[in-house]
Design goal:
Blueprint (H helix, E strand, L loop, with lengths): L3 H16 L11 E4 L15 E4 L3 H9 L4 E2 L11 E7 L4 H14 E12 L4 H11 L4 E5 L2 E7 L2 H11 L6 E2 L2 E2 L12 H9 L6 E6 L5 H9 L3 E8 L2 H10 L7 E5 L11 E6 L11 H14 E12 L5 H7 E9 L3 E9 L5
Parallel strand pairs: 1-2, 1-4, 2-3, 4-5, 10-11, 10-13, 11-12, 13-14
Antiparallel strand pairs: 5-7, 6-7, 8-9, 14-16, 15-16
Helix pairs in contact: 3-5, 6-7
Bound molecules: S-adenosylmethionine.
S-adenosylmethionine binds next to helix 7.
């Protein structure tokens, strides 16, 4: 999830064009907010006609808990996707920002408004520059360590943004489909490749890929370990999971895809093998507690003789949780940046 101060600044930025009377909102208006952080505050006038898109499961769950109308992607919206106001919460991923803006223009009605808001570190300045080049009447205001911009939509805006940004969804890494803004969207991660190299070729039985991203470790395990009988992929980012589904479509092994927050939600099934390159941050700062929570979850999802194979940055302090949750822990490889660890025979405990 993003930090509380980031969400607060975004909330304030989004409110500005309404407070200043630059964008009008009526109770009957349909409002779409894309990529809202879980604790984003919305102008009070929105509540009834508000739809939120949030594909990152922890934020999705936080918004759902608040009783808000939230879906994981644009294609999950029932009926006609036509909104009077579309608000885009910018992220620090340019490709994701551009994809969202092209989609926002498509679902915004003629003479409706698009508002985009982000911090300086979200690259809001670069987005303003790009949009100003494409569209004449873009308004913007710097405030709260960021920038809010808005404009009225017509067919010319839709066409210009679609031409400029519309194909960003299909960019791939090493021949694979990846998600805009997702992990290792442009190339295979070096740490994951190191883990794949060290997977024993004789692994067998049911395998789970925790924090699967676009599916690299599952693909590698299926190629390297022919005696595996099934693959279950767990991932918090909806778009990455959809990319994984596409990337694994040619694999004969039975497989299932689960959209889960592994730090807070239980997992169905018990596995012989779990492979994992755990997340170590959600914002900019390292958060080892997130990886620790997911390692603990893995220890509860293995069969008694099960084995966890994990890669992590060397400085991440996962040894304590591994030693407390598993009877056998061994280093398989170390480089100047990464460590690859096998943890076997989990200490029994319910999820
Ligand atoms: C270091 S990446 C590894 C991705 C993939 N396994 C690979 O090797 O390319 C970690 C992944 O964990 C996902 N993630 C982050 N928080 C999560 C959570 N709470 N539950 C499940 N997955 C999470 C991220 O979206 C990201 O795809």
């Amino acid at each position: 999830m993003s930090s509380a101060s980031d969400a607060l600044n975004k909330s304030r930025l989004i409110a500005l064009p309404f407070e200043r009377g630059c964008v009008d909102t009526k109770p009957a208006h349909r409002v779409l907010v894309m990529a809202a952080p879980g604790d984003l505050r919305f102008p009070a006038e929105f509540q009834d006609g508000l739809t939120i898109i949030q594909g990152f499961r922890p934020d999705f769950l936080a918004l759902q808990k608040r009783g808000l109308n939230v879906v994981c992607s644009l294609d999950q919206i029932e009926g006609t996707a036509a909104f009077d106001i579309v608000i885009v919460c910018l992220s620090r991923h340019r490709r994701l920002n551009e994809t969202m803006l092209a989609k926002a223009a498509k679902v915004c009605v003629d003479h409706g408004a698009i508002i985009a808001a982000g911090s300086k570190t979200d690259g809001a300045g670069a987005i303003r520059k790009a949009l100003s080049r494409l569209t004449g009447d873009l308004q913007s205001m710097p405030k709260h360590h960021g920038l809010v911009m808005w404009l009225t939509v017509d067919e010319a805006v839709r066409t210009a943004w679609d031409d400029a940004f519309g194909d960003r969804d299909s960019v791939s890494a090493s021949g694979f489909v990846t998600a805009p803004g997702g992990f290792s969207a442009d190339r295979i991660d070096v740490g994951s490749a190191l883990l794949a190299e060290h997977l024993p070729a004789d692994l067998s039985g049911a395998c789970a890929d925790f924090c699967a991203g676009w599916g690299y470790l599952s693909i590698a395990a299926s190629e390297r370990c022919p005696a595996l009988t099934s693959l279950d992929l767990f991932e918090a980012d909806w778009a990455s999971l959809k990319a994984a589904e596409t990337n694994l479509s040619g694999i004969a092994m039975p497989r299932a895809f689960h959209w889960r927050d592994l730090s807070s939600e239980p997992v169905e099934g018990r596995f012989d093998v779990i492979v994992m390159n755990p997340p170590f941050h959600t914002g900019r700062a390292a958060e080892p507690s997130l990886g620790e929570a997911i390692i603990e979850r893995a220890s509860t999802c293995l069969k008694p003789g099960g084995r966890l194979f994990l890669v992590a940055n060397r400085q991440l302090p996962y040894e304590a949780v591994l030693n407390s949750r598993f009877r056998n822990v061994r280093f398989m490889a170390e480089t100047s940046i990464y460590k690859v660890i096998e943890a076997a025979r989990p200490a029994a405990s319910p999820q």
